[in-house]
Amino acid sequence: MPILFYHEDVKPLKLERRKLKSWISSVITSEQKKTGSINYIFCSDDYLLQVNKEYLDHDYFTDIITFDYVEGDLISGDLFISVERVSDNARQYGVSFDEELRRILVHGVLHLLGYPDKQPEQKVIMTQKEDQYLAIF
Hints:
By secondary structure, the chain is α/β, with parallel strands linked by helices. The chain has 5 helices and 4 strands, in the order E-H-E-H-E-E-H-H-H.
């Protein structure tokens, strides 16, 4: 099944598509799951804000929204990512845009794999998993 990248209202990012797809698949395999259809949709803050309002009834900016279509062990979903948030976060955390983007890419997949991050202890586990998988990129 494919891992695909789309761009809504932002200019296309220069991505190492083959390497990213292979890495994302290896993350899923490491968690004893199968890669289904995963769509990454890169967009602006305003676009993602509209998605957040329309589908989640949230009126705030965010870096990623994950729509989970997982069935059993088949990991599938649509992941909307604000390029502006990723850029701001990268500056805020003192990392490169590419590094922050990879963190967000794997963050969304970890949600699809069943890792929540609402509670403080869940955030700790999520960050540990992100770091673990970023290290193998």
